[in-house]
Structure formats: structure tokens, C-alpha cells
Specification:
This protein is an alpha/beta fold. 30% of the residues lie in helices and 16% in strands.
């Protein structure tokens, strides 16, 4: 059959478009349709030129385009085309500015079109369950309202251009430890109210073209194989009508994947389980209709993408405009945590000492699949050659003795010291979790010494998440710069100088100590994490336990002040007035929380339900309004239900700074069961000790027991690391892989302190054999994996 090409592709959503898809599908064999639902290679879908089906490219992109032209990988190690590195979600989320996220999504889409990419893999929507998750910098918040709203705005901005988003990682993917094979054990209420709610909000408000299913299992079923998750909830309940793609090598069982509604397995090249799938159809064990449904969704994405690229052959973008936008987002997302003496904004122009490696080599993004090759990067020291500078600590946070001594000497006579500190690259990354919340020990020594030499210290903290700061009382001013993207240095400079009034607010709680976090004892210590704390994540826990924190959720200072007044609560809306009572223009994030007065089934003391950011000139005031929704008051118990009773509506500047309180009474016929075990459980009083027994009775599950004795039974879901226990061949293979990866990174020997080496090992020997087969495109063939299994199971 000759190759064909469709000169004109109808608009998606028309009868003509549907007819084209049906005609192409009807001409394909069952084998071809199965093959279509796996990728061609690492980044491309499969083409069938005889059917007029082109190949399209998809690339990473939660905060910038990572298009790889030559060597491809899923960890950001190989070169990619220069693109604007916008601030990762840890900082863009802290803007609480929907409009800015819309503009960011739109800008990344323009860069995608200029590079011939119609599908961008982002945004990341997972909840920050624990401060140590290595990928927290890619996620917006510990709260599903913030995550859902910011994600929806990003998606709407991107898809306005026609470029498709892939919202990820669906779902309950909250740790990097053994992420390829872990099983998130979680009760349905917690899953619905916390871990699915942000995805639900984004689906309903932005209709993402694709959703990426996560690596992990949920309660024993892999996300790729989970029909309840991908069809019953995502499609039938929420109305999603796009394509589901796996995370790279996340497909567990291809036959179950088709049954679940998982459409496209990526990357391609391995033909993993394609033959078995065809046999299942022939034997009547798998309906061909399910294959057709997935193939139809893949074809719809491919044809609409081909049409989009044809119409945008000459697409381009303004690099400087995007760099400026990146700086604007960074500035709005940076959070002023402390300014006790009014040192900021800094009035002095001379006599300033800058200390820290990150001042000349700013940390502006994380490591892993989201790592961008930026179009440009400015450094703080380049922006301020008039300031004196001492490095004092190196890129890994180790003291440089001679420079450290000079820094102390210079600090004693400086008018102010700007200290750049934070988490080095090696501390947080995709592929592994942080080991603690502390900064390198050298920073403690440096802060103590500098504070003894100069009382005017401005600390600029850089990193992708919450940190322990036991010495914070010694520092009068603290700016949390997060990870600010390629223009972060300009944003820091503008905030310090007062050119920009800080308006960022934290989207996660900063505890005083990691031990205060309810999941601290088990996080990243269990292959199959049990979500023992249930709904009490982040501020929901700290409020209920009445436990002090370093900085609360929603917190952020300003150079001006704001007054809240005139709160009016009706049956369908909340309105109030916000006034700038200071001397400079600035922006305030108004946060609306709901606090139930009536006792009943355990729930959070209060929960965020909406927010808005309002910009005001000095003395200016504006009215803001919010539409009340039934879900403001609902909890999940065999469906969404609203308990009758009284509720307080809180207009707040943070989760612990309520400015105005209103009240509303709700009548409801919903019946809420209160279990007999609740009264004496941890969930009724979260300040006490959380036990395994509490979770088991609440969730109806048992804590998994690890096999410690006897020989294990290994499967394609097992990893080389696991098989090392019983197989000398697996041990030999792991050693060979370690040495090979070390050599590729120019290391003399395997080095697990090197973040790239550690990330690669976590993505190879720690992954299931099935994932290795898929991720290598068949270079690690299935027959070799089965031979390994045969030996390990002898």
C-alpha cells in the first residue's frame, strides 16, 4: 500500500474530524492498532504512513521546554535545545496569581510551537505530603485548592495556543523512594479529599488534552491498570475526554492497561507485551473495542497536533519577553519570611557585602526530567559589581577556609551583609528524596559567625522546599527565593532594593522540625507507604494538633500593610473590602477558609476554599468576591456529602492570620455516619501519638509486612536491587551498571553522593524489570529479564 497524506485535516470536534478518525481506524488491523498505542521511540508516537498517520513529538515542560534532539533520556541529563527556564512550581505556585500561571503556560506553548512540539508534559499536580519528597519543587502545594487552581490556569494558558498539556502524575505519587514500584496505601476519603481533588479541579476547569498516569500502585493496583482511577473517576465522573499516557516506562500490564483506559505506553521501541495483547484479543480475553477506544484517542491527538503544526510552521517567540516574564513570576513568587528590624528594602547603596556561592551561581531549578537548558542566566554578583563579595562556601555547601575568614573580617565593617544560602543540587532531585530538612552544617557556622560580626544580615534562601532554620532568630531579614528560574537573580535584586514589593505566600507549611511532621517516622522508609495521617496533611495537621510551626501555610510579609473590612456572607457569595494602609503599592493574597462549627465526622479545623490576589496603590481599596460552592462544606463518604450545621467563613492573610469571620447555616439531608472507633482514635485528637492500629481501623487495611526470611518469588515487577538478595547474577549485573554509570559521569568509582549518579541508579536497578525493558526501548530485552527471573527463582 502506498503512503498517503491528508491535505486537509478538519477541525477537532466536527463530524468531519470524527469521520476521518473512524475511516483511518477502520483501515487498520488489530495488530496495527495495538502498535499505535505504544510509542515509536523515546519522545515520538508511532507513524503509519500507509494510513496517513504521522508521528508527533512530546517533551517535558512543567516550567520550560526540554526538547532533546539527539540523545534522549527522562532525567534531564542529555542536552536539550535552549528554552526559557521559568520558575518551578515551588515558586510559581507561591505567586497565588492565576493570571501569571496562564501567561507562563502560554509562553511555554509558544516555545513548543517554535520547536515543532504539540504536546508538553506538565504541569505537575501532586500534593506535598511530606517536606522531604525529592520532587516537591515541581509541585504547587500541600493543598489541593492551590494545586488545582494554579494547574488549571497553566493548562488554560498553554492550551489556548492549541498545544496540549499532559497533567501529571496521576495519582498519589508523593515520594521518590522506589517510585517505580511502590504501592500507595490510602483510604478512599483521603484519596478523594486531598490527593485527587486538585486533579479534579483542573480537569473540570481546564480540560487537559492528556493526563499522565503515575508509576506507583494505589491500594494494590498499578495506576496504568486502574480502571476505577482512569475510567470510572477520571472519565465518567469528572468528564475527561482526552488521552491517558503513561509516565515513561510506567506501563504495568498492557492488557489490563487497555481495560483500564490507559491509551498510550511511552517510551516506545520495546514492543512490550504487544504480542500477548494481540493473543488476548484473538482468544476473546480482551475486547477489541477497548483497543479501538484507545487507538481513537491516540489518533485524535495525533491528527489535531498535525493540523496545529501545519498552521504554525513559522512560529517564533521573543526570548527577551519570556525572560522578563520569568523574572516577573519569580519576583511575585518569592516570599519575605522575616523583616523584624525593617532592614528591607535596603536603602544603602555602598558598603554592602555579599556572601555565598549561590550569589555568583544562583540555584534556580531542580534536577531531573524538568531540567531546562536556559536561554540566559543572570547572576546577582553580575548585577551588583559595586558590592563586595566573598564566596565563603562552595557549590556543595562546604566552607572555603580562607574566604570564610575574609568574609568575617569584611562583615565587621560592612553596612549590611547579603547572605545567599540554601539546598545544594545534591540535596534534592527527581529520583531520590531529601534525607532531612537541614541545610549543610557550614551554613550554621557561617550564620553564627556573620551574626556576631554584623547585625544587619539579609538571608536569601534558595531551594525547593521547607527547611529547618534553628538559628533564624540571629537573622533580621529573610527572603525565600525558592527556585526562581533563569531570571531569579534580577527578582532577588528588585525585592532587596524595594523596586518590587514582595507579595509571595507560602503554599506549604514550614515546621519547626521535621519530627513535627506526622509522616516523619515512616516517610521514604516504606516501599509501600501507608498514608497514616489521612486527611491531616500540612496545615490541616498542624492546626488540629495545635502545634507551633516556623512559618504557616499562606504566610508572606510585605513592605506595606493591608486592612480587611466589610465582610458579607450570603447563601451564594462572600464579599469583602481590602485596603492598602501602607506607603507603597503592593499585592495581597486574600484566602478564604471554611471552619465547621458543628461536631461530627472528624475533619480539619479549617480548609482553604478559595483565594484571590489583589494589587493596590497606597490608600486604595477594592472589593473582592467569591462564589460559594457546595464543595466548600463537603466531605467524602461514599460520595460527596454536606453535613448540616453552622460554618464560619474566614477571610485570612494566612492559615493562622484570620482577619474577618462570618457565619453561614446549611440545611442538608445528607446522612453522615460517625464510626464507633472515632472518639478514642488519633483522628479525633491528632495531637496524640499516631499508631498503626489507628490507621488500620480507619482505612480498613493492614500495614504491609516485608518478607525478611525465606526465598522470595520474583516477577517482572521485581527490580535488580531486590533480586540481589538471592541471585549472584543480579549482584554482578548491578555492579556492572554502577561502574558503567560512574564512567559515563566521569567518576572514578560509583558515588551515591553525586545526584546524577544516584538518580540514574534509582531509575535503573531500582526499577521493575518491566520498566527497564520499556525505558531502554528493548535494548534490555524481555528475554534477558526472564532469564534473570529464572535464575533468581531457582
Amino acid at each position: 500500500m502506498e503512503d498517503i497524506s491528508f491535505k486537509e485535516i478538519p477541525d477537532e470536534g466536527t463530524k468531519e474530524f470524527d469521520a476521518l478518525i473512524a475511516r483511518v481506524l477502520a483501515g487498520m488491523t488489530t495488530k496495527e492498532k495495538i502498535e499505535l498505542c505504544s510509542g515509536k521511540n523515546f519522545w515520538h508516537t508511532k507513524d503509519f504512513k500507509k494510513h496517513g498517520i504521522s508521528s508527533i513529538m512530546m517533551t517535558d515542560g512543567p516550567h520550560g521546554l526540554r526538547k532533546q534532539i539527539e540523545s534522549a533520556d527522562m532525567l534531564g541529563l542529555n542536552a536539550s535545545v535552549p528554552s526559557t527556564c521559568f520558575p518551578p512550581a515551588v515558586t510559581s505556585g507561591s505567586t497565588w496569581n492565576r493570571e501569571l500561571l496562564f501567561e507562563e503556560g502560554k509562553a511555554i506553548a509558544k516555545e513548543a510551537l517554535a520547536n515543532g512540539v504539540p504536546v508538553v508534559l506538565g504541569p505537575g499536580m501532586n500534593i506535598k505530603r511530606n517536606p522531604l519528597c525529592g520532587r516537591n519543587f515541581e509541585y504547587f502545594s500541600e493543598d489541593p485548592v492551590v494545586s488545582g487552581e494554579m494547574g488549571a490556569s497553566f493548562i488554560n494558558g498553554m492550551q489556548e495556543t492549541g498545544v496540549a498539556c499532559s497533567m501529571k502524575h496521576f495519582a498519589a505519587n508523593n515520594q521518590e523512594y522506589l517510585r517505580f514500584s511502590s504501592d500507595s496505601r490510602i483510604d478512599e476519603r483521603t484519596l478523594r479529599e486531598i490527593y485527587l481533588a486538585g486533579f479534579e479541579r483542573a480537569v473540570k476547569k481546564s480540560s487537559p488534552r492528556t493526563v499522565m498516569c503515575a508509576y506507583n500502585k494505589i491500594n494494590g493496583t498499578a495506576c496504568s491498570d486502574n480502571r476505577v482511577l482512569l475510567t470510572d473517576i477520571l472519565r465518567n465522573e469528572w468528564g475527561f475526554d482526552g488521552m491517558v499516557v503513561t509516565d515513561w516506562s510506567a506501563m504495568c500490564n498492557r492488557m489490563n492497561g487497555f481495560s483500564a483506559g490507559c491509551d498510550l505506553s511511552m517510551p516506545g521501541g520495546s514492543a512490550y507485551q504487544e504480542k500477548e495483547t494481540l493473543d488476548a484479543v484473538k482468544k476473546g480475553n480482551l475486547s477489541e473495542q477497548l483497543i479501538d477506544e484507545s487507538a481513537r484517542r491516540v489518533l485524535s491527538l495525533v491528527f489535531r497536533s498535525e493540523k496545529l503544526l501545519r498552521e504554525n510552521k513559522n512560529a517564533s517567540y521573543d526570548k527577551e519577553e519570556h525572560n522578563n516574564l520569568a523574572g516577573k513570576i519569580a519576583a511575585e513568587g518569592m516570599v519575605l519570611l522575616k523583616n523584624s528590624t525593617g532592614l528591607l528594602p535596603l536603602a544603602e547603596k555602598d558598603g554592602i557585602l555579599v556572601v555565598g556561592h549561590m550569589a555568583k551561581d544562583i540555584r534556580y531549578q531542580g534536577s531531573g526530567s524538568s531540567r531546562i537548558n536556559p536561554t540566559k542566566v543572570m547572576q546577582f554578583t553580575d548585577l551588583h559589581p559595586e558590592y563586595d563579595f566573598e564566596e565563603a562556601v562552595d557549590e556543595n555547601g562546604a566552607l572555603i577556609p580562607e574566604s570564610f575568614t575574609k568574609a568575617l573580617s569584611k562583615a565587621s565593617c560592612a553596612k549590611a551583609v547579603i547572605l545567599f544560602a540554601g539546598l545544594p543540587d545534591s540535596y534534592e532531585s527527581e529520583g531520590f528524596d531529601r534525607s532531612n530538612m537541614r541545610l549543610p552544617e557550614s551554613y550554621t557556622r557561617l550564620v553564627n559567625a556573620l551574626a556576631g560580626a554584623n547585625k544587619n544580615i539579609i538571608l536569601v534562601l534558595l531551594g525547593g522546599g521547607a527547611m529547618e532554620l534553628p538559628w533564624i532568630d540571629m537573622v533580621p531579614s529573610v527572603i525565600y527565593g525558592g527556585l526562581g528560574g533563569q531570571n531569579a537573580a534580577s527578582a532577588v535584586s528588585d525585592i532587596i532594593s524595594g523596586k518590587i514589593c514582595p507579595s509571595g505566600k507560602l503554599t506549604e507549611t514550614w515546621p519547626l522540625s521535621f519530627s513535627d511532621v506526622p509522616s516523619s517516622k515512616t516517610f521514604a522508609k516504606e516501599k509501600d507507604p501507608c498514608y497514616r495521617e489521612g486527611i491531616f496533611v500540612g496545615y490541616r495537621y498542624f492546626d488540629a494538633a495545635e502545634k507551633k510551626v516556623l512559618f504557616p501555610f499562606g504566610f508572606g510579609l510585605s513592605y506595606t500593610s493591608f486592612e480587611y473590612k466589610n465582610l458579607v456572607v450570603t447563601g451564594d457569595s462572600v464579599t469583602l473590602t481590602v485596603r492598602n494602609t501602607g506607603n507603597v503599592e503592593g499585592s495581597e493574597v486574600v484566602q478564604i477558609y471554611v471552619e465547621p462549627e458543628t461536631k461530627g465526622l472528624f475533619r480539619a479545623k479549617k480548609e482553604l476554599r478559595d483565594f484571590c490576589k489583589v494589587h493596590l496603590l497606597p490608600g486604595e481599596e477594592k472589593d473582592v468576591s467569591f462564589e460559594i460552592d457546595d464543595r466548600w462544606f463537603a466531605l467524602y463518604q461514599n460520595g460527596w456529602k454536606v453535613p448540616a450545621g453552622d460554618y464560619f467563613i474566614l477571610a485570612s492573610s494566612s492559615s493562622q492570620d484570620t482577619r474577618l469571620r462570618g457565619k453561614i447555616h446549611l440545611n442538608s439531608e445528607d446522612s453522615i455516619d460517625i464510626p464507633a472507633w472515632q472518639e478514642k482514635s488519633w483522628y479525633a485528637a491528632p495531637s496524640q501519638e499516631l499508631t498503626d492500629a489507628d490507621w488500620e481501623i480507619m482505612s480498613g487495611q493492614k500495614i504491609p509486612v516485608s518478607e525478611t526470611k525465606g526465598k522470595r518469588k520474583y516477577t517482572m515487577d521485581s527490580s535488580i536491587d531486590e533480586m540481589c538478595r538471592d541471585s549472584w547474577i543480579a549482584r554482578k549485573m548491578k555492579s556492572g551498571i554502577e561502574n558503567s554509570i560512574a564512567k559515563n559521569f566521569g567518576l572514578k568509582a560509583p558515588d551515591y553522593s553525586n545526584e546524577n549518579f544516584r538518580m540514574m541508579m534509582a531509575s535503573s536497578t531500582a526499577t521493575p524489570l518491566r520498566s527497564m525493558v520499556i525505558s531502554t526501548g528493548g535494548r534490555f530485552p524481555e528475554w534477558v529479564a526472564k532469564l534473570l527471573l529464572l535464575h533468581a527463582n531457582l
